[in-house]
Amino acid sequence: MHEADIQNWLNHARSVGYTDTELRTLMLKAGWAYQQVNDIMTSRGLAPGSAAANPKGKVVPRRLEKHVEAQMRHYLKIGLAVIFAVATWMFAYWLWQR
After folding, report:
1. Is 56 helix (H, G, I), strand (E, B) or coil?
2. Residue 25 Cα to chain centre, angstroms
């Protein structure tokens, strides 16, 4: 990869929401040597890494976190709709019994 390509990829990944640790993990999983990754990251002003920075090597991209947040909002909307439906039914039943 050329220097400009690497810089564009890093800039794009950062704009999408990847952290330095996530970028480092992705590069290592792609087959880059640890020293190459450290050299690239430090030469571009990004945080130098350590093996302890992400002990499990798990990458959770920001877009996945946003997906989880969207799921939670969806379940909240469903829950509120169920509560509203039950309350409406109880009110209608109460009126009918009067």
Report:
1. coil
2. 14
- For the chain, how far is it from start to end, CA to CA, in angstroms? 78
CA distance 39 to 54: 18
What 3-state class would DSSP assign to 93? Answer: helix
Residue matched to tokens 């039943």: 93
Helices (runs of H) and strands (runs of E) counted in the chain: 4, 0
Checking if the pLDDT of 95 tops 80, the result is yes
Residue 69 pLDDT more than 90? no
Is the entire prediction scored with pTM above 0.90?
Answer: no
- The residue extents of the domains of the chain are 1-59, 61-98
